[in-house]
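ok new one. same drill as before - C-alpha cells go in, u give me an amino acid for every spot. 494 of them this time. try not to just spam alanines like last time pls lmao
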C-alpha cells in the first residue's frame, strides 16, 4: 500500500468517533479489522486464511482483486482451500441463470464445512446479490452465510467485515449476534479511490474507467445489477496508471461495460478517445487494451486514435449479437447490420492488421431462419479472428424473457452448430497469417505443459509459446513466429 495511506491508517485513533467521509472512514475500519484479525490469529497461533472465488467477467475479476487487497491488508493470507479457510467470499455473476445455479451448488457444499467450523466467515457479493429474489433465497435456505452485499458498495468491504463479525460473533461487540449482515444498495453515484488492491499479475492490470451501464439491451440484466453509468475522473485514472507503471506494469486493460460512453457524466466531459490520448503519454506503459466497445457509439475519433497509437493493441472486441437488423432492434442494440459492417470497414481501413473478435447470440426470441442467415452473412463478411458464441438463455427480469415466439431448443441447437462450424472454419483459415514475422510478445507465464517453454501474447491477443525461462515473465520480447498450430504460434526469441 502507498506509504501516505499507510501513515494515515496508522494515525487513526480507534477510540475516536468513526470518520464520516470517505476514504478516511474505510481507513478507520481497515485498522479496526487489523486489530480483530491479529487477536484472532494470536489466539489460534496461526495466520488466518481467505479464499476469494470469482464468477463472471473481467469487471468481476478486477473487483475480486480489490476484495483480496483488503483481506490481505487486514491480515488474511490468500488460500485456495475453501474447506479449511477462515474467510470465504463468492463474487457472483448473474448474466445467465445457470451462473446462479453454480453458486447455489457451491454454497450447498459449504454448508457442512460451516457446520464443522462455526467460526468460518462466508460472504456473498456481486451482481447476483442485487436481485431481491436471490437475497431472499439465501436468507431462507442458506442461513449460515454471514455477509451479503452487492456491486455498489464494494469499497465498504472493511466496514462490512467489522459489522459481520459483530453480528455473527458477539464477542467482538457488546451486542448479540444476529448471524447475517445484508447491505444492498439499489444504485450509487459514489466512487471511492485509494483503497488496497491485490493484483493477480505484477506486469499487467485491469483499470476501471467507469462503472454501470445505460444501454438496456433487452436480453441483459447488467444495467439492473450494476446501475447507471458513472465515469471516474480522468486525473484519478491517470494517477492510478502512473502508479501501476512505477510498480512494473507494462500492459493495462481499461474496463467498462461500454468504454465508448466514458466521460459523458463528468462535470467536464471527456471522450474515450481523449482519455486514451492522455493514457498513452504515461511512461512505462507499453500496451493498452480496452473492453467492451459498443458498436453504437464507436466514434471516428476513436478509430483515428487507434490508427495513430503506438501503444493501443491491435485487437478490438466488437460484439455483434445478431446480424439481423430486425433482431438487433428487438435486442435494443441501437445499430443495424449496415452500420456494423460500415464500422468494420472503417476500422480495418485505419488499422489493417487488427484482430476482430465478437459475441453472437443464437436463438433470440423471434429469430427466423432468414434472421439467422443474416448473422451468418456478417460472419462471412467480417471474418472474425474468433467469436464467443452463445445459445440464447432466457434471463428472468429482462424484457426478452417475456417476449413471444421463444425458439425451440432443437432449432437453436442446429443453428448454433452451423454458426460454430463457420466461425471455426474462418478462424482456421486466418490462423497462421503472421507466420515468419518477428513481433513483440508479452511473456505472461511458464508453459503449463512444457517447463522448457514460456507463454505470451501478441498485440492482437494471439497466444505464442517459445523456449524461455521464468525470469522472462513480464517482459516484452521480439519473437519470430516459426509455426502456427491452429490457435497458437510456436516461436523463438530474436
Amino acid at each position: 500500500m502507498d506509504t501516505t495511506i499507510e501513515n494515515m491508517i496508522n494515525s487513526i485513533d480507534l477510540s475516536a468517533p468513526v470518520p464520516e467521509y470517505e476514504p478516511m472512514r474505510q481507513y478507520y475500519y481497515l485498522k479496526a479489522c487489523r486489530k480483530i484479525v491479529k487477536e484472532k490469529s494470536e489466539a489460534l497461533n496461526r495466520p488466518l486464511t481467505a479464499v476469494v472465488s470469482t464468477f463472471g467477467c473481467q469487471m468481476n475479476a478486477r473487483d475480486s482483486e480489490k476484495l483480496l487487497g483488503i483481506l490481505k491488508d487486514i491480515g488474511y493470507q490468500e488460500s485456495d482451500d475453501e474447506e479449511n479457510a477462515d474467510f470465504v467470499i463468492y463474487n457472483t455473476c448473474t448474466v445467465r441463470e445457470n451462473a446462479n445455479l453454480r453458486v447455489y451448488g457451491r454454497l450447498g457444499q459449504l454448508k457442512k464445512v460451516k457446520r464443522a467450523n462455526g467460526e468460518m466467515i462466508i460472504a456473498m457479493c456481486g451482481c447476483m446479490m442485487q436481485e431481491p429474489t436471490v437475497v431472499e433465497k439465501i436468507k431462507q435456505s442458506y442461513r449460515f452465510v454471514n455477509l451479503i452485499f452487492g456491486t455498489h458498495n464494494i469499497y465498504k468491504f472493511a466496514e462490512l467485515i467489522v459489522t459481520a463479525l459483530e453480528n455473527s460473533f458477539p464477542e467482538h461487540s457488546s451486542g448479540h449476534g444476529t448471524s447475517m449482515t445484508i447491505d444492498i444498495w439499489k444504485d450509487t453515484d459514489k466512487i471511492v479511490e485509494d483503497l488496497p488492491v491485490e493484483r493477480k499479475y505484477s506486469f499487467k492490470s485491469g483499470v476501471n474507467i467507469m462503472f454501470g451501464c445505460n444501454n438496456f439491451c433487452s436480453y441483459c440484466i447488467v444495467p439492473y445489477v450494476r446501475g447507471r453509468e458513472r465515469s471516474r475522473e480522468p486525473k484519478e485514472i491517470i494517477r492510478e496508471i502512473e502508479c501501476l507503471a512505477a510498480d512494473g506494469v507494462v500492459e493495462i486493460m481499461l474496463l467498462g461495460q461500454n468504454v465508448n460512453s466514458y466521460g459523458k457524466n463528468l462535470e467536464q466531459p471527456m471522450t474515450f478517445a481523449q482519455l486514451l490520448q492522455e493514457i498513452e503519454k504515461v511512461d512505462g506503459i507499453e500496451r493498452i487494451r480496452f473492453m467492451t466497445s459498443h458498436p453504437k457509439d464507436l466514434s471516428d475519433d476513436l478509430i483515428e486514435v487507434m490508427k495513430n497509437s503506438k501503444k493501443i493493441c491491435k485487437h478490438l472486441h466488437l460484439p455483434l449479437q445478431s446480424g439481423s437488423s430486425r433482431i438487433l432492434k428487438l435486442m435494443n442494440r441501437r445499430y443495424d447490420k449496415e452500420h456494423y459492417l460500415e464500422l468494420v470497414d472503417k476500422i480495418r481501413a485505419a488499422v489493417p492488421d487488427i484482430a476482430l473478435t465478437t459475441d453472437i447470440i443464437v436463438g433470440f426470441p423471434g429469430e427466423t431462419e432468414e434472421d439467422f442467415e443474416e448473422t451468418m452473412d456478417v460472419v462471412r463478411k467480417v471474418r472474425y479472428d474468433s467469436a464467443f458464441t452463445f445459445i440464447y438463455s432466457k434471463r428472468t427480469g429482462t424484457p426478452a424473457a417475456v417476449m413471444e415466439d421463444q425458439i425451440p431448443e432443437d432449432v437453436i441447437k442446429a443453428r448454433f452448430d452451423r454458426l460454430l462450424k463457420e466461425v471455426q472454419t474462418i478462424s482456421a483459415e486466418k490462423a497462421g497469417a503472421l507466420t515468419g514475422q518477428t513481433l513483440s510478445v508479452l511473456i505472461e507465464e511458464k508453459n503449463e505443459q512444457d517447463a522448457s517453454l514460456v507463454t505470451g501474447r501478441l498485440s492482437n491477443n494471439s497466444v505464442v509459446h517459445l523456449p524461455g525461462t521464468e525470469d522472462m515473465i513480464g517482459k516484452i520480447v521480439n519473437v519470430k513466429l516459426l509455426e502456427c498450430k491452429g490457435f497458437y504460434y510456436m516461436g523463438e526469441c530474436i
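The radius of gyration is 24 Å. and btw The first helix runs from residue 3 to 10.
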